Amino acid sequence: MVLDPSTLPDVSDLTVGILGGTGDQGRGLAYRLARSGLAVRIGSRSAPRGETAARELAALPGADGNLSGGDNGYAAAADLVIVAVPWEGHRELVASLAQPLAGKVVVDCVNPLGFDSHGPYPLAVPEGSAAQQAAGLLPDSRVCAAFHHVSAVLLADPQVERIDLDVLVLGEDREAVAQVQALAYRIPNMRGLYAGRLRNARQVEALTANLIAINKRYKAHAGIRVTDL
């Protein structure tokens, strides 16, 4: 099959919620998606923190009036929801929102990593990966894995017009995967690529440790590009 983004669904009317939207990755994704014209809800454990983050990001170039904030329950009420919380709080938060997330596409971008004096390393997850853990906790949701390798620094930098990156999207539901692919394509120079079922999310999440090591060594914001597509 030839890669043809014109076959992907139109997601321009979707409202995107971001759980953990006040962290670096959550803020970056919120800003970049709002800048693409989507309505974005930023969630936080504290509603005032979510509201403050939304106001700060809304003041950046291109965000316009597409950002609002509240607690994580507020973000979970969006059409499509991205999980961007720290790994340590992943299970508890996802489980607590099973009911409002039922029937929705949920995108998990959490990387279970540890850090020691030798640098980052992947953590063992009983379910196999963070995305598989989310799928187990959200049996009525359409869980995908994506956006693991996007630099939070580049996402949040108003001077960066384009991000040269392929987003690897994994999931069991092809329609849900296509929506997430289309979401990635809204960011200039970014592509969303189908990369397999959720059982393959473990190595995608773990690869982030290698990218962090690359970035540290070369003082870069490395990402992934897939050739021959």
Provide structural commentary:
There is one protein chain. The chain has 229 residues and is an alpha/beta fold. It has one domain (5-218): NAD(P)-binding Rossmann-like Domain (Rossmann fold, 3-Layer(aba) Sandwich). Helix content is 36%, strand content 21%. It is built from 9 helices and 10 strands. It has helices spanning 24-35, 47-58, 72-76, 90-96, 98-101, 130-137, 152-156, 174-185, 201-218, and strands at residues 15-19, 39-44, 67-71, 80-83, 105-108, 113-116, 119-122, 142-145, 165-171, 190-194. The strands form 2 sheets. It has an 8-stranded mixed sheet. The chain has a two-stranded antiparallel sheet with strand order 6-7. Helix 2 links the parallel strand 2 and strand 3 (67-71). Helix 4 packs parallel to helix 6 (130-137). The mean pLDDT is 96.
Structural category: alpha/beta
Neighbour order of strands in the largest sheet: 3-2-1-4-5-8-9-10
What series of H and E elements makes up the topology? EHEHEHEHHEEEHEHEHEH
**Gross morphology:** globular
Sequence stretches where pLDDT stays below 50 over 5 or more residues: none
What is the annotated CATH architecture? 3-Layer(aba) Sandwich
Radius of gyration: 16 Å
CATH overall fold name = Rossmann fold
Q: What's the overall average pLDDT, rounded?
A: 96
**Count of separate structural domains:** 1
Q: Main sheet, how many strands, which sense, barrel? A: 8 strands, mixed
Our measurement of the CA-to-CA distance between the termini, rounded to an integer number of angstroms, reads 10 Å
Strand-residue proportion: 15-25%
The first-level CATH class name: Alpha Beta
Helix content percent band: 25-40%
Count of strand segments: 10
The CATH superfamily title = NAD(P)-binding Rossmann-like Domain
